[in-house]
Amino acid sequence: LQNAELGKRAPRWIRDNEVTMCMKCKEPFNALTRRRHHCRACGHVVCWKCSDFKAHLEYDGNKLNKVCKDCYHVIIGCTDSEEKKKKGILEIESAEVSGNSVICSFLQYMEKSKPWQKAWCVIPKQEALVLYMYGAPQDVKALATIPLLGYTVDDTPRSADLPHSFKLTQSKSVHSFAADNEELKQKWLKVIHLAVKGETPERQNELQGN
């Protein structure tokens, strides 16, 4: 919801399983210490510390409702200048980049000899040479980023790999990915093969058009 509509209309609730961390302070949720709460104004999933505010919400008959820190400040009309401090490279919201991406989907990811883990992977349009990895599609901070330029792509799975896997290697760093099916793997490879050479799908289309 836009700031002007906060509290006036019921928000769309982000589902618990769409995030692995508080959407405000970015602390990871875990089974013991962090219960998930919903802000009744914006619908984001937040931890108890970030949901410890109450505001009167118009759509709920002006009753007092639990809201997150950001919505509280907007609704009571005070701005928090410190919030505007520059975001680091990892602090780009997944929903923001996924909605304007060259490609995004879940992929299995493996680094060195760690076990495979599921990651929400995104190559955003505004940074089409960087692969962002998130724990879940609505996370507000990336777990890692890989600048793709200069990587070598190896798309032949070894026996120990998952069937639809491919590797990105550059000197000592090796990142292994696996898609759920061959079609998805080929979609990713099409974009990555361009990115490692410093090209983007749009640029490719322009060159072919000329």
UniProtKB/TrEMBL annotation:
Molecular function terms, GO-annotated: guanyl-nucleotide exchange factor activity; zinc ion binding
Statement: the UniProt record of this protein carries the keyword Zinc-finger: yes
GO biological process assignments: cytoskeleton organization; filopodium assembly
Gene Ontology CC annotation, any one: cytoskeleton
Record has Lyase as a keyword: no
Domain B box-type: 17-67
Pfam families per record: FYVE (PF01363), PH (PF00169)
Entry keyword set: Cytoplasm, Cytoskeleton, Guanine-nucleotide releasing factor, Metal-binding, Phosphoprotein, Repeat, Zinc, Zinc-finger
Residues covered by the PH domain: 100-197
Cellular location(s): Cytoplasm, Cytoskeleton
Superkingdom of this protein's organism: Eukaryota
FYVE-type domain segment(s): 16-72
Protein name per its UniProtKB record: FGD4 protein
Species for this entry: Baryphthengus martii
Name of the gene this protein is made from: Fgd4_0
